[in-house]
Amino acid sequence: MEKIRIRGGPDLPLRGSVRVSGSKNAVLPAIAAALLTENKIRLENVPLVRDVYSMMTLLGELGAEGDLRENVLEMQVPRIHREEASYDLVKVMRASILVLGPLVARFGKAIVALPGGCAIGSRPIDLHMTGLHKLGASITLEHGYIKAEAPRLQGADIHFEKNTVGGTENIVMAASLARGETILRNCAREPEVQNLCELLVKMGAKIDGIGEETMRVTGVDSLGGAVHEIIPDRIEAGTYMVAGALTRGDIILDRVRPDHLVTTIEKLRYCGARIETPETGKIRVVGSAEIHPEDITTSPYPGFPTDMQAQFMVLLTQASGTSIITETIFDRRFQHVNELLRLGASIEVSGDKAIVRGPSRLSGAEVIASDLRASAGLLLAGLIAGGETVVNEVEHIDRGYEAIEAKLRQLGARIERIKE
Q1: Among 66-80, 83-97, 132-146, 223-237, where is mean pLDDT lowest?
Q2: CATH number at residue 238
Q3: Which of 231, 283, 303, 319 could form a disulfide with 291 if both were Cys (CB 3.0 to 4.6 A apart)?
Q4: How many CA atoms lie within 13 A of 111 on its CB side?
């Protein structure tokens, strides 16, 4: 079992520069897209995180050939050995559901276990199933598995009842090989969805309206190979930006997309941080001596990302006043609150709202990470908590952050991974 130990304090500002890795949430659907073609897909700027290895293992079990070297991944699926993604593989990562659409679109059949991943409440996959059903697939759900079959998918007019990143990705991949035109309405507009669509276009897909709420996909008979760069991880970038503001530091992030971070930058400025973009692909964060309270409501892109909620909660424990965080995307996404209370934070949860009263002087303690972003929040709290903080169950953070302790050490944090 591995843990991360931080020796923090209120007067230990982070300084220096850090390189942001490729986006976990962009690379996973891109890997799934390799199932749509018999030709080779080359993905660049791939983050070396556990979810990438899990997705590679899943595709390997299906029959894919993969090679990952120095953040470059080559995948090829000339044929498959099986159409079933078993529970043993799927349970560790919710993004496994993204193989459903590509499998049924190219091979006519898919059997995928209901997914696992972060335990942060209800993330229904019915929108994926409804979309495939409208494309002509027969869908059954039994014994914990989704079974989808169709000789060939047919274009359709599909309206997503609610914003769904994974659902949009699954259906746009499936529609790329469907016969005729598919209209997708109320699409997720996240940069990761756009990055996937750009890959599909390179492979030969015909997609209009990328980045808009309505997309039109004209199906083609087959897709080819492509070389594609994964966008920088906006959540990793946001996490380090909060770290800079939280510790009253001065850090520079390299290889970032400021246009993907508009709401994060806006909220950090409201909290008192100085944010600069000294040159293309860089962001500088200079913390303020006084952190201002700020209300935050999570919402789909281009709104404030739910994946930054835990990190900002930690920042707001140091604000001079009361802040209210409203979580509208997922239920049960305040599980990190109890751990922050152990460190000395003053937070009250009422339904979908968390009331954060600051400033609180945090002191180190042993805490447990409940999910990926909560674990990042606990690491940030450890940076400013007096004494020693030990974060347990760090396998969550390894799912989505590449070498996080090494990067924080590079900025001056006293942090290490320990084994027991």
Answers
A1: 83-97
A2: 3.65.10.10
A3: 319
A4: 12
